[in-house]
Amino acid sequence: MTTPRISAPSVEAFSAAILRHLKLSLGKDPEHASLYDWRMSLALSLRDHVVEPWFESTRKTYEARGKRVYYLSMEFLIGRLVEDVAVNLGFEDIAEEAITALGQNYGDVVANEPDAALGNGGLGRLAACFMDSLSTLGIPAYGYGIRYEHGLFEQHFEEGAQIETAETWLSQAHVWEFERPEVTYPIHFGGHVAVEDGKTVWHAGETVMASAYDTPVLGWQGRWANTLRLWAAKPTTNFDLESFNRGDYIAASAPEALARTISRVLYPDDTTDVGKELRLKQEYFFTSASLQDLLRRFLSEGGALKDLPDHVAIQLNDTHPAIAGPELVRLLMDEHQFEVAQAITTARACLAYTNHTLLPEALERWPEDLFARVLPRHYRIIQLIEAAHFATAGETVRIFEHGEVKMGELAFVMAHHVNGVSALHSELVKETVFSDLNAAYPGRIINQTNGITPRRWLYTCNRPLRGLINDTIGTAWPDNLDQLSGLTAHVEDSAFLDRFQAAKDANKARLADWLKARDGVSVDPAAMFDVQIKRIHEYKRQLMNLLETVALWNDIRANPNGAWTPRVKLFGGKAAPGYVVAKEIIHLINDAARVINADPVTREFLQIVYPENYNVSMAEMLIPAADLSEQISTAGKEASGTGNMKFALNGAPTIGTLDGANVEIRDCVGAENFFLFGLTAAEVTARRAEPDYARTAIAASPRLSEVLDQIRSGLFSGGDRDRYVNLVNGLYDHDYFLVTCDFDAYFAAQRQVDTAFADSRTWTRMAALNTARVGWFSSDRTISGYAKDIWQAQSLLEQRDADQNVA
Ligand code: H2P
Q1: Topology at the third CATH level for domain 512-680+742-767
Q2: What is the Å distance from ligand 1's center to 221 Cα?
Q3: What are the tens digits of pLDDT across the range 234-246?
Q4: Could you say which of 106, 294, 526, 616 is the most buried, measured as most Cβ atoms within 10 Å of its Cβ?
Q5: For 273-282, 328-337, 530-539, 692-701, which range has the lowest pLDDT when averaged over its residues?
Q6: Which pTM does this prediction carry?
Q7: Residue 306 catalytic?
């Protein structure tokens, strides 16, 4: 479509820029510079080239007066940015050559950057991919979130058990952001509501300031840059001098400490204790700041608020910012004199809501008394919203129920569209969690299947495969991923398949080196790399994977001379600190790894590897190196998955259930290139209704019974029979996620994988077809879908280029 807009500097000029930053920004000379200094200087030199396209995009947006998209998300799981920016600028080679010329190793310099880990998993990473696509497509957009001081905790293993420590990415200067001290908004909490002169007034009990930090988000080839605006909480007054003068130093700093708490830490997922007042405050804090900011921007352009929906599309990423509905109504009513009905209609015309999960515990609810205490004005406004909803749709679905405020229902009622994140999930949203609301508001629920940015998840993280694709179909695919289908014509060509396999082998060797260097673990790159990486959760069924591994171990021991396909089972993922069962699963994987990896009989065929502290950067290393992608959730539970797309794109066929986007991936790659097993969503529901379904399944599976007995006997826990008693009994008594019922089918599918992998030419062809056929899962396609079906937002790229050609 458009041509690159950035003119690249020469290597010499870029080296000079790095040296200039080293000296003037870091205050170092090359002789004394650390890796950190080099990385910062490189980042600053790259950043210098981002600012101009960023300004240009902002200018164009103001000029065009088109619609802006506002993506409100508690999480943006960004990862590192140096390589990302270098790649999007088209400077990757120049950056690498310049750093090399300065005597540094580019890989080491890049790896020095801490991950921005402002998210838990798929939901946060999706937000980051969306920001990338919004910029690549040239759709004017802002991401709004929280500038957490501490991102997702760091995970360590102590004797196999997960230990958490605080993550500290901001202990170093974060070069990608620009502080905006002048952009601050007051955020109120508590107090009471009074009617004065016929007007409702909120007398807040406590106020903190939301202060903006902007990160430019550069799209492919630098053609457009949007803004990620993250809010930090600050006190209204920094310091209580009176207390200080009295000698009470702790009291003097108290206001600051209290306020800052709000943006201090990212809450881990599955923290089901809904009484978390601080979490509610975080949600309101960033939502209110974002809405105040977007209204200010709109008004500064001279708009009339009744026209707001023509200029503003606000997307709620899950229920976390669902308070946006009542907050926008409040701002319109209390500060801009709207009538209730008009305020609700206007707000709804701006708002849309994405649902990411059917798990009932993940749909937020707040105790009414807590809610009314923290947000008394909103409590009343939600009553008005509920009344308006009853008037149109009847009283079948309530927002207030059993003493709680239900944020899913609130988000639904206040959104003009609600979307699920895969075809199956969107249907299940209609049939289950929101069936009554779907009946009351037909057509409101639509689907937008998730996607991933191919710039990070192939182009950048998989250089060997990138090179092969460029050589085979040209270089226009990174922002037009359907072009990958051009690879299909080459899958019978043995020279192409050789190169495809060589790329995979190179990635596996790189991973092997990394594991050796970081953890001292040796793996055989000739073995199959079988990878499951994601949050640890019962529905994702890492436990089933581990049980299958133990069963395989038993089979190998029983027949050590059999023709076994060597495998390395790789696990990666964190458990929420309060999620006991998930932590037991981690412990069991590590315990089993210790025993199985030490077995001389099976060593050449089977190994378990679980590197600690899984994050985006680790995913970028693991995914290109994977031979097999594990997507084995209980059907009906994984809303979409996005890891599944990343693996397929990088040439790793899936073993998986008919769940989430697996269904659509299998449709694209072909049933013969996907290892399907397990109950369907409908069968899962039916099976749960059968009495004793788990015990029946265990009794019918000698393999599974043996494995469970081994775990119970203390075989993996040094004789400790208590360690996994709950985990094993849980499977017998209430195996809600049907690990026992799918076990045999999973084991059988894994043996099909063994056979297929042993025929390496056929396997490589299958892998290549996966890459060739998943172009549809680009987040550019997803964002185009949102823009068309939900936001009615336009790209400004063509208009801008046309204007510039005229000028
Ligand atoms: C969640 C869902 C995934 C989905 C993702 C993005 C909450 O992420 O469970 O199925 O793909 O949102 O829509 P995750 O489990 O990976 O944290």
Answers
A1: Rossmann fold (3.40.50)
A2: 29
A3: 998 767 788 878 8
A4: 294
A5: 273-282
A6: 0.97
A7: no
